[in-house]
Amino acid sequence: MNATAEPPAARRADYARDGFVIVRGLYDPADMRAASAEADGLLTDRAHLKSVRNIRCRWQNNVFTGECTFETFDPVIDIGPVCDRLAHDTRLLSVLHDLYGEPARLFKDKLIYKPPGVKGYGLHQDWIAWDGFPRSFLTVLVPFDAADRDNGCTVVYPGYHHDGPLTAQDGKYHELPAETVDEARAVHLLLEPGDVAIFGGFTPHRSDPNVSARWRRQLYLSYNADSDGGDQRAKHYREFHAWLRTKYAEHGKTDTYFE
Ligand SMILES: O=C(O)CCC(=O)C(=O)O
């Protein structure tokens, strides 16, 4: 675990060894209050966006009731100025510059609300074998609520990133079989608002359902190193939307849109 005061070289060594690092207290309480208020506001002021046809939105089942529940805005910075500010905050960009040894470019941004009862994510790596997908891809978790075991914090498995992609490189999303990792090596990313966790695109991770009565709102900001494709956020979303539309169409859903 790393404090904000950890020397950059030590943090870089930790990240290289483990595939993740935690930086405590990066953002101020005022930043996080503004982020929390924005997340709440989006649910009401932008309620019209919440449609199963809108590919900006992700839905997950409630593990207790089976109800299909709104869970994520992806992207979010175009509708959330505070999220945009957090994504481009100089304190965060400086930590990422230290990790990369060069500037970081925002690649993707999503706000996962994970309300009580909502299912988690199976074990996977974020890196996907799409043409030009940056190998320097990493994700910064920015919790708006305390994240713990009960509300389904993200769980990472250190060290496995050294092996690169662990599934077929066919451009499809693959979950990893549970036996790919040693559960004894699991690290639960227990975070307070203001902390961030950073993990690489080859770091296996997953999360449990939210079995608490609390939300687990968390901003997921993904970046690439500047020398690994430069600014490619717009290109990513064009490719991601085309991929989503194809996937939906395979299930007979052809009336999707993006708003
Ligand atoms: O919600 C989580 O903890 C994990 C989410 C995740 O892995 C993803 O969106 O790719």
Task: Report on this structure.
By secondary structure, the protein is α+β, with helices and mostly antiparallel strands. It has a single domain (2-250), classed as Sandwich (Jelly Rolls), CATH 2.60.120.620. The protein has helices spanning 8-18, 29-45, 81-87, 90-100, 233-250; strands at residues 2-3, 20-24, 57-61, 68-73, 104-112, 121-124, 138-143, 154-156, 187-188, 196-200, 205-207, 218-225. It has an eight-stranded mixed sheet with strand order 1-2-10-7-12-5-4-3. The protein has a four-stranded antiparallel sheet with strand order 6-11-8-9, with no helix packed on it. Helix 1 (8-18) links the parallel strand 1 (2-3) and strand 2. The chain starts with a strand and ends in a 9-residue tail after the last helix. The model has no long low-confidence stretch (mean pLDDT 96). 2-oxoglutaric acid (AKG) binds at residues 112, 121, 126, 154, 205, 207, 220.
Distance between the termini: 39 Å
The proportion of residues in beta strands is 15-25%
Helix/strand-derived category reads alpha+beta
Distinct helical segment count: 5
Mean pLDDT: 96
Rg from alpha-carbon coordinates: 17 Å
Order of helices and strands: EHEHEEHHEEEEEEEEH
**CATH architectural arrangement:** Sandwich
> How many separate structural domains?
1
Bound molecules: 2-oxoglutaric acid
Outline the biggest β-sheet. 8 strands, mixed
Provide the CATH topology: Jelly Rolls
The helix content is: 10-25%
Major sheet strand order: 1-2-10-7-12-5-4-3
